[in-house]
Amino acid sequence: MIVPFLYNNWFTEDHNRFIWKATTDDRRLIIVQFSPNYNTIAHELCAGEGLAPRLLYECNKIINGWSMVVIELSEGMYLYDIKVTDQEHTAVMNDVTKTIQLLHDNNLVFGNLHSGSILIQNVDNKIRGMLFDFSLCGEHQKCYYPFSINQRTNRPSGAEPYGLLDKSHDLYYLGMLQKKEVIC
Q1: What is the DSSP string of the chain?
Q2: pLDDT tens-digit profile of 39-93?
Q3: Crossing angle for the helix pair 86-105 and 40-48, nearest 10 degrees?
Q4: Which InterPro entries match (predicted)?
Q5: Alpha-carbon distance 89 to 47, whole Å?
Q6: 77-178 fold
Q7: What is the pLDDT of residues 94-120, one digit of tens each?
Q8: 87, exposed or middle or buried, with CB in 10 Å at 0-12, 13-18, 19+?
Q9: Cβ neighbours for 123, distance < 8 A, ≥ 6 positions apart
């Protein structure tokens, strides 16, 4: 089934990430993302537990091997876009910790954990955290970071271009986020 949609605007202020908000003809809001690598297995694993937005569609190898993914957009903001109370921050971090543990239990590394990869949503009047953007996610010690990863100044050893994905990297960034240290 073909579902026409119209691009609205960038989903994020980071225009190095190819992620847009869009609207279908029947007025549903969606996220359209283009990525040279996207781990749909990890995304669907997390979405199945309510820890990531629902993946609606994936089209592999559309342009030079890139994928296009379409993700359900419910109301939400990135963690860095919103002020949360200490109690809300704890709730969000509990969800993120649960998500990272789920990935690690399946020998997967998220690889992109920062305040811009965490969506904050109000679910049944409770603040929830969901991971977003599984474009760097891969197998622990088998997959590599791309050359173009964010060159953060405060990163663990090995989290570098062409470095092996490692569960310890997720845990390092998770610890920083739990202490409310900004990671972009």
Answers
A1: ----EEEEEESSS-TTS-EEEEEETT--EEEEEEES---HHHHHHHHHTTSSPPEEEEE-SSSTT-EEEEEE--S-EEGGGS---HHHHHHHHHHHHHHHHHHHHTTEE----SGGGEEEEEETTEEEEEE---SS-EETTTSB--TT----SS--TT-STTPBP-HHHHHHHHHHHHTT----
A2: 999 999 999 999 999 888 877 667 777 888 888 876 667 676 677 888 989 999 9
A3: 130
A4: Kinase-like_dom_sf
A5: 21
A6: Transferase(Phosphotransferase); domain 1 (1.10.510)
A7: 999 999 999 999 999 999 898 888 888
A8: exposed
A9: 50
Give the position of tokens 């359900």: 72
At the topology level, CATH places domain 5-72 in: Phosphorylase Kinase; domain 1 (3.30.200)
Provide the pLDDT confidence category of residue 183 given band limits of 50, 70 and 90: low
Domain boundaries, the chain: 5-72, 77-178
